[in-house]
Specification:
Length: 208
């Protein structure tokens, strides 16, 4: 039986950015990662509001999602959305504690109790780890294209790519260069998303 890696797309990407979903799917499969796409995942949940409202509810929802790959004896879950990665990675770390995990599992039905033995990885890590292979897969180098990347704070704390320094990440820049394009620096590339919106709203928009 072909081994497949479970992937968590999240609500935002599936509903608002289907093109990112398809591009990620094609990129991972080109690098040899066969995906297992579950239909019964729920919201991650949201990394801000649910946690602020009820921490136990947030952990229970995350634990339920994490239990689904484990029920199929999977050891790794790929996550695409930065917010989903942040909340699931954080919950997974907290649920490594036996006492805390037993408390949260007490809120869940038997089939969704989580054993704490899953590794949560960002899809960016999967692509970056295959960088040498990626270079051999490029058919039409993006020569002459300038790309402005934005990592997003949810993919830096914790770091989506273990080799990255959150204060000066380089993984996405290296992927862009591997594709033949130029990764450029820009004035607000290290600010959080909401600060970028405030900045661009106060001046004439610039298209990168």
């Amino acid at each position: 039986m072909e081994d497949k890696t479970p992937i968590f797309w999240g609500c935002t990407i599936t509903h608002n950015y289907p093109y990112l979903m398809e591009a990620t799917r094609k990129a991972l499969e080109a690098l040899g990662t066969k995906l297992d796409e579950y239909k019964d995942f729920s919201c991650c949940p949201d990394p801000v509001y649910v946690k602020a409202y009820d921490k136990k509810a947030q952990l229970a929802l995350s634990a339920r999602n994490l239990s689904l790959p484990r029920n199929k004896q999977k050891n790794k879950l790929l996550v695409v959305c930065n917010g989903c990665y942040n909340i699931l990675h954080e919950a997974n770390a907290e649920l490594k504690d036996n006492k805390r995990r037993q408390e949260i599992n007490g809120l869940l039905p038997e089939e969704n109790k989580y054993d704490g033995n899953l590794r949560v990885e960002h899809a960016l890590q999967e692509i970056y780890s295959s960088l040498p292979l990626l270079k051999t897969k490029v058919k039409k180098p993006l020569k002459g294209l300038q790309v402005a990347v934005h990592y997003g704070c949810h993919a830096l704390y914790p770091a989506a790519v273990s080799e990255d320094n959150p204060e000066n990440p380089a993984s996405m820049d290296e992927i862009v260069r591997a594709l033949g394009a130029e990764s450029i620096e820009y004035e607000t590339n290290w600010t959080a998303a909401e600060h970028r919106l405030q900045y661009t709203a106060s001046r004439k928009p610039t298209i990168y």
